[in-house]
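Limitations
The structure tokens in this dataset are predictions for the assembled complex, not deposited experimental models. Users should treat interface geometry with appropriate caution, especially where small molecules or nucleic acid strands are included. An illustrative entry is reproduced here so readers can see what is and is not provided.
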Amino acid sequence: MDIERSRDRFAPHYLEHEKWKLGDYGAHPIDKYLRPGRIPHIWCSGCGLGISMTCFISALEESGLPLDKNCVVSGIGCTGRVAGYLKLDSYHTTHGRPIPFATGLKLGNPELTVTVFSGDGDLFAIGGNHFIHAARRNVDINVICVNNFNYGMTGGQVGPTTHLKARTTTTPYGNFEQAFNLPHVAVASGAVYVARWTTLHARRLKASIKEALLKKGFCFIEIIAPCPTAYGRRNRLGTGLNEMKYYKEHSVIRHNADPAEAELVLGGDILVGKFRDEEKPTFLDMQKEGTLDVMSGKGGSKK
Amino acid sequence: MNQREILTGEHFMNGDEASAEGAIAAGCRFFAGYPITPATEIAERMSRRLPEVGGIYIQMEDELASMGAILGASWAGVKTMTATSGPGFSLMMENYGLGVMTETPCVIVDIMRGGPSTGLPTLVSQGDVMQSRWGTHGDIGVIAFTPSSPQEMFDCTIKAFNLSEQFRLPVVVLGDEIVGHMTEKVVIPKKEDIKLYSRRKPKVKPNNYLPFAPDDDLVPPMACAGEGYNVHVTGLTHDERGYPVINAEAQEKLVGRIVDKIRKNANKIIEYEEIKTRGSDVVVVAYGSVSRCGKEAVRMARAEKMNVGLLRPLTIWPFPEKRLRKLSEKVKAFVVPEVNYGQIAFEVERCVASNSQTLLLPKMGGDIHTPEDIFKGIKEMI
Amino acid sequence: MKLWRKPLDADDWEPPKGKIYIIEERCKGCGFCEEFCPRKVLEESDKYNSRGYHPPEVVNPDDCVHCELCELICPEFAIFVLDAKEMESKKPKKKRGKGGGSKKTSQKKKSSKKQTSKKTKKGGRK
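Predicted assembly:
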């Protein structure tokens, strides 16, 4: 790496934008939350990841939480790249392991607000076990899963959320496996906050992320996002815009719905809303109560 | 509570427990693990002791998660450790690589048992030596200790923490089942007699900080989460800013440095014990529990007027190759008893092949060599 | 959406006005902002950016009510809205985002305003 390039990091944001031949005003208000020199991002035209990130940043801004105490942990995949664009303490870990990493980060320094930002394959296929156990323990982290129904980064293979009958590069005859219903998995595993939105519901999504950021306990938000290049193309869903229009026509907003009804079918309605919002002691609360109080109360149990 | 931090005094404890005490004395305040014979006693001890000193014990869902959690906690600024045995160590390889790539200080205690696969859960082996060196994909710099007694389990765990903090990498303590379950006297020194090293913090302001720009010793100072440095940490090949750069040049620079920071500082890291090697015709190279039998074999050989010595690497990685090359100038043969089918023997042969012979005394695990076994090997080579 | 009655304070209340800024070089032409703007302020333009996409242009600047949906829904961080009155009364300040406020930017602003107005006149391009 040459020294000149490394100095990009220190350049004020507007310098970066001079390269972009700006229109009539300086920087985008969101740019101060992005790492300089990293935009344009790698995501395709019509991808929903940029919207998810904007909603997260806006929610973070509105939450009033100190930025220096906010961390984002990502796994591998298209969504895994989120960590690389956000100007926070951000960790891009191994495939499927962002939740254990985030668990360590939160327990190591409980002052931090830790958000896991990853994809459906990362969180529910290779990392499924970590998800259900972190939810069961009620570790105080937020998990945002951007669900695009396939493995986009590797070119569109079948994943744990791929619709039944959908075509991907590894299901040339149509997918014959049942798909995960993510809100149902999360509620059953013990998450205290569970919501699902599509990228079209940007404002509601933002409000939901804000709630999750300010809430204690394991919060889960599923974001249904278009993947026109890998998934949309093979299933004739059209462009990203077509998928967004589909969300507009087929989304049903219903709060406190039974998550069992939130299953997704190719060409069917999408049930969105807040499925669960409850209070439960977190892992650290329980740990304090279960060890420290016992130790100080009885003084026994020591060797 | 602080009185419980370091249990100064003489104790009768097994190697696993000594390792746990070493960790707590070294300042470890986060342990994530998964039960596995023969390392379970470490987790058990930690689950009792960590709350006493204000630390956190968490039993994860598997070893993949255990390793991930200690990396996360390390980035939160805490000294962290996990403990496992072969099957779990295999699962940890993925995040072990992440720890090396992201230069995350932490300690892994691997109490070796018979393998491959489930193998011999309750019996000894030394089969993970090469796994600790090459188990994760790609080229890595490695530090690993092979203690041979509970006292050394205590000492090596502290050393492992110090080196991991100093050189920013996961350090492995390779105990074997015999050392882990052996109960002996362990002397825990006073707090002021235990030297501790903590990771270097950046001295510059966040705007001028390059998280992966190394100092002269090739180790970059480390800013943890919540300190305002907004560091990006990735397992992808990255530049000094920490941003992913996918090309040969960046790979050369980063991976080269990660390997070199151990290679070039090897003299500061390597520790070994030598017994009567001066003027010896045959030298036994043994580590871990086997080295205790090796010592007895050397004593037996010396009693029969044979010129035999012993070299016992305490840091099996980096390997004391310079010392072995030097010894090979005068020593006729090296005898290497190992509880595997030849792992360190080939390392020894690599170093000494031009001058001396190497004899491997393998054992497949479940049991270690008797002194007589090794003595027979010595007689063969003399 | 049809209002079922006129709000009582509708006459006292002035709807907010937004001014839309487009970073054309960032645009990947997904069309989300154009499609989902509730007041149909934006339309695809004829021009190309250096990557060959058609960035949006403001065709009905007076209709913008500063709802910021385009800003939120743009996956490329390429479009944002500021309060129009504030922007007219004051020179752009560093209030939102750094940069701006320099002489250069204000000049640029004027020139592009002319451009937009011209285009609006063209009208029924499609």
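Some entries come with short summary sentences. For this one: The first strand of chain A starts at residue 70 and ends at 74.
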